[in-house]
Write a structure and sequence with these properties.
Layout lengths: L1 H19 L1 H17 L6 E2 L7 E6 L5 H6 L3 H9 L1 E6 L1 E2 L2 E2 L2 H10 L13 E2 L4 E2 L2 E2 H9 L6 E3 L2 H9 L9 H8 L4 E4 L24 H4 L5 E2 L1 E3 L5 E3 L7 E3 L1 H11 L6 E6 L2 H8 L5 H23 L7 E6 L10 E7 L8 E2 L8 E3 L3 H8 L14 E2 L7 H38 L8 H21 L10 H25 L3 H19 L25 H22 L4 H16 L7 H18 L6 H23 L8 H10 L3 H16 L2 H24 L13 H19 L5 H21 L10 H4 L1
Parallel strand pairs: 2-15, 2-16, 3-19, 10-12, 10-15
Antiparallel strand pairs: 1-20, 3-17, 4-5, 6-9, 7-8, 9-11, 13-14, 16-17, 18-20
Helix pairs in contact: 2-19, 11-12, 14-15, 14-26, 15-16, 15-17, 15-26, 16-17, 17-18, 18-19, 18-20, 18-25, 18-26, 19-20, 20-21, 20-25, 21-22, 22-23, 23-24, 24-25, 25-26
């Protein structure tokens, strides 16, 4: 009898699902159709379609496209005319990469961190370090005296990255080249420090040879090249009294760059790094003069190096691994190779014309040589997107300036909006002291508050605003007021619909924006900055928080107004939001899907007057994993040049790499909290909060086996929002910013609901509703 009872209850649940959730499948199908319709544009072209024999990487540290415009660099300008170009994001987590971080990332194919000892010490066997022959140190550190260049801190670098949130396998590019039998060499020396001449070893802290880490293997060895002080000549007018000897650099290059077969060589214009290191010791005017001279010398060296490359058979990558000091964390990159047309670079990592990551360099080098990148590489090969762009350099410079302005204004904008929202909530709480007109005034302000969020995305589209603070703030305020007035007029016409209009504006705007490639997200206060470069398409963490909370609020408002007849519309809305957030060609947001599915599931269950049981919570966890894997396998089925990070999850599972799959999720949690211990405490806190929510629902009679079926839509909204905040806190790497940002949507809606519930409600003078 007990079994029969369970079967009957299961059958009843199925009938409820079929009756109430019939529109869900249709919503998902319509979402896919929309995506297919939007995806009819030209696909970007991968750069490895015509493999080359040799790849030459020329590093110009600290050079941006603004520098290319500012300084006279004829060789670089001529190269750019023939190349596909873009900005390379040089940010590692929340900070701009240091030089060693950058080279390690380029060699690992994912974000990597420099060790804390011997950070940039790479030695040839016949050198001395601290008065000790380098051969002895290399023997002790590496277990062998290499014939080439040895990076002393390889062990420390491996340990640092094993414990980091990114889990980089340092030396992966060099090891992949070694396994393919492709020679590799590095020619670079950016040693700094006062008080020594070229014949003497530099002081221990003056070694700056991290360029070797890009092409070293996992043993820390680069087989060929030169990084010793033999590349330098004394020059009293140069930073630290020394500069590169171009003849020595070219001779070292010629030894490796020959016609014997496939080769990868990195040449660094190291004087640029030396000038940057010398900057604190010079007056501002002298520092500018030294950098300008370093730019001129680097361009001359570039021209001499390019003379050795055959454009019909060789690929040349000119890249700056670090951004200029004090500038946004974006630097220049340009690629010339057979079959690559001039255009804007992108990758599946960024999916936005003109932008790539440091991690994309490693797979690009391998793809250019016709080699398959190993599984540990998370970056994606360069692609050429739009090749019909006029003024490519000017466009990249303008977008960098916009990113810089966004970053400089974000704290001010977020503070103003947050304080305004807090004051609105406080004034509503204490409204009895504000007079009889307070409800009307506060309601009007709540509508404007709902308009503030979409206004922050739209204000950047006003050409007159530019990168100026006052016009930016005024333009945003005018847009917010306009949206608020529309919502207010809608509420005057039909009481209670104003909140629907205000919240619906945010949901609709974000939906359309993502379907169009997220142009409104770029360089906006709650979108993402290309200088910060956590994301370039889809929804950033703050936008996800706004979109997710607004979607829950909109579903609640629909059901609150329409009753049970609005359930299907609410369910379709929730599913469509998940599709938008998770599809790889749209949002591709792992953290967003991980947060939305359980939060929306709790909301949907409570809206349907379902009892929330522990079994339901377990089912939601399983559904979350299933949805996430579904999106991952959709991504894995796409062409390799279009695959995002989602495809890697599916590839890990198909190959049985369970530890890699678990590491991916674990490192995302660590990135959110800044360390494994804090991440563990965050997970524990999340479990406690969700358990507490369940206990509260049981106490209120809204959950548990004895709970009544009838619940209110606002209880459903509260439950979904709590789950979204808690899971979003853990699953996204913006930590507390996710639940804090949600309040910017929730508070104005709650204010309107509280004012509606006040005896007398909100009465608009002269309106038909007010008269009634």
């Amino acid at each position: 009898m007990r079994l029969l009872g369970k079967l009957r209850r299961s059958a009843r649940h199925v009938r409820v699902f079929r009756r109430n959730f019939a529109g869900v499948g249709l919503a998902g199908l319509l979402g896919l159709v929309v995506v297919a319709g939007c995806g009819g544009g030209d696909e970007p072209r991968e750069v490895g379609d015509a493999p080359v024999d040799r790849v030459l990487v020329v590093s110009l540290p600290g050079v941006s496209w603004e520098d290319v415009q500012r300084y006279d660099m004829p060789n670089l300008e001529a190269f750019v005319d023939e190349a596909a170009i873009g900005d390379v994001s040089t940010r590692i987590g929340r900070v701009a990469a240091g030089t060693t971080d950058a080279y390690l990332s380029m060699g690992a194919g994912t974000r990597a961190l420099a060790p804390e000892i011997d950070v940039a010490v790479a030695l040839e066997p016949d050198e001395r370090y601290g008065g000790v022959p380098a051969s002895e140190i290399l023997q002790r550190r590496l277990g062998v005296v290499p014939p080439g260049i040895g990076y002393l801190a390889i062990g420390a670098a491996i340990d640092r990255n094993d414990d980091s949130p990114y889990g980089a396998d340092v030396g992966l590019l060099g090891q992949a080249l070694a396994d393919a039998g492709i020679p590799r060499a590095v020619v670079a020396n950016a040693d700094a420090g006062e008080g020594f001449v070229s014949e003497d070893p530099p002081p221990d802290g003056a070694y700056a040879r991290s360029a070797a880490t890009m092409l070293m293997g996992d043993d820390g060895i680069v087989p060929d090249g030169m990084v010793s002080r033999n590349l330098l000549v004394d020059d009293p007018a140069a930073p630290f009294g020394r500069r590169l000897d171009h003849d020595a650099v070219l001779n070292a290059l010629d030894l490796e760059w020959n016609d014997s077969g496939r080769t990868v060589v990195l040449v660094e214009a190291s004087d640029l790094s030396r000038a940057a290191a010398y900057r604190p010791r010079a007056t501002p005017a002298q520092a500018r003069q030294l950098r300008e001279q370093a730019m001129v010398d680097a361009d001359v060296l570039l021209g001499e190096v390019l003379e050795r490359a055959d454009s019909s058979r060789d690929a040349v990558v000119v890249v700056s691994p670090v951004a200029p000091r004090g500038a946004p964390a974006l630097a220049m990159v340009a690629l010339r190779a057979p079959g690559v047309d001039p255009g804007l670079l992108q990758s599946a990592t960024t999916r936005r014309d003109g932008y790539v990551h440091l991690a994309d360099v490693a797979p690009t080098v391998l793809s250019l040589l016709g080699e398959e990148p190993p599984d540990g590489i998370e970056g994606r090969s360069f692609q050429v997107g739009d090749d019909e762009v006029a003024g490519r350099v000017s466009r990249l410079v303008d977008e960098t300036a916009a990113a810089d302005f966004r970053d400089s204004q974000q704290a001010l904008v977020v503070t103003l909006i947050s304080v305004g929202t807090a004051l609105l909530g406080l004034a509503t709480w204490q409204r009895r002291w504000l007079g009889a007109q307070a409800p009307r005034l506060l309601a009007g302000l709540a509508y404007v508050a709902l308009g503030v969020i979409p206004a922050t995305f739209l204000v950047g589209q006003i050409g007159l605003v530019g990168e100026r603070t006052i016009p930016y703030l005024v333009g945003g305020a005018v847009l917010a007021l306009g949206i608020g007035v529309v919502a207010w007029l809608a509420d005057r016409r039909r009481r209670g619909i104003g909140a629907l209009v205000g919240v619906g504006f945010t949901v609709g705007m974000v939906t359309v924006d993502v379907l169009l490639g997220a142009p409104l997200q770029l360089n906006t206060a709650f979108g993402y900055s290309v200088a910060v470069a956590g994301r370039f398409t889809g929804l950033g963490n703050l936008a996800f928080a706004l979109f997710g909370s607004a979607t829950i609020m909109l579903a609640v408002l629909i059901v609150d107004r329409a009753g049970r007849s609005g359930l299907r519309v609410a369910y379709a809305l929730l599913v469509a939001a998940i599709v938008l957030e998770g599809l790889p060609m749209l949002g591709a947001d792992v953290g967003g899907v991980t947060s939305m599915v359980p939060a929306f599931g709790v909301t949907a269950l409570l809206l349907a007057d379902r009892r929330v049981t522990s079994r339901d919570l377990c089912i939601l966890v399983a559904v979350t994993a299933g949805v996430l894997l579904g999106f991952a396998f959709v991504d894995a089925a796409r062409p390799s040049q279009s695959q995002t990070h989602l495809a890697r999850l599916a590839q890990h599972l198909v190959a049985g790499r369970w530890s890699a799959f678990a590491d991916t999720l674990t490192r995302r949690w660590q990135a959110s909290f800044g360390g494994a211990e804090l991440a563990a405490w965050g997970a524990v806190l999340g479990v406690i909060v969700v358990t507490a929510l369940y206990v509260v629902l049981v106490a209120l009679g809204r959950a548990g086996p004895e709970a009544p079926r009838r619940t209110g839509p606002w209880v459903a909204g509260a439950g979904g929002l709590v789950v979204l905040a808690v899971v979003g806190l853990v699953a996204n790497d913006s930590s507390i910013a996710v639940p804090a940002t949600m309040l910017l949507v929730v508070v104005p809606v709650v204010v309107l609901q509280v004012l509606r519930a006040t005896p007398g409600g909100i009465r608009w003078t002269g309106s038909a509703e007010g008269a009634r």
